Amino acid sequence: MPPLVRSRLERLRRQYAPHEHRPLDGYVVTMGAFGALAASAAIAAKVTGRPIPDRPATADVVLISIATHKLSRLIAKDSITSPLRAPFTRYSEPGGSGEVNEEVRDQGSSLRHSIGELVSCPFCLAVWVATGLTAGLVFAPKLTRLTATVFTATAVSDFLQMAYSISKETAEG
Predict the structure, then answer these.
(1) What is the C-alpha separation between 139 and 65, in angstroms, rounded?
(2) Which one-letter DSSP state was computed for residue 37?
């Protein structure tokens, strides 16, 4: 990032959050990466002549929505995926049901911090995951639907497991 831009972002950061570390320059890079990936997908679709639906099918929207929920939580919170987050986060405590709570690492670069916030927040990740799955519908619709079906079925199973546990506790209590 050019020194003049970095200087202006630092001044803006101090004005925006004088008492808290907010890595605005890291956010700019992260937003730029998202924009570049999304634009690349759109350009690739145009160049390859892939048809883009005027209106996505309702079934695809539902499938991608539920799969996005599950995949975002899996990446951001699951114990098994913690090695993906470890360079950017620090384990804090168990989060229940195979999930963990983590804190973003403040040391190092502001880019590291912003990536830490991204990869530990299922809400933040959702737009990235939904964009990837939606692009998948354009470039590899059968494989994307199959993959999304796995995550959708897993999400439904999670809710059924929770409902079962709650009903069991209610019956025993």
Answers:
(1) 18
(2) H
The amino acid present at 142, given as its one-letter code, is K
Q: What is the pTM of this model?
A: 0.88
Q: What's the CA angle centered on 130, arms 103 and 48, to 5 degrees?
A: 130
Max CA pair span of the chain? 65
* Cα distance between residue 94 and residue 102, in whole Å: 9
On whether the CB atoms of residues 28 and 111 are closer than 8 A, the answer is: no
pLDDT in tens, 89-110: 999 999 988 899 999 997 778 8
DSSP H or E run through 147? helix 141-172
The closest alpha carbon to 147, from 63, 77, 33, 40, belongs to 63
Backbone dihedral region for residue 109 (phi beyond 0: left; psi -120 to 50: alpha; all else: beta): beta
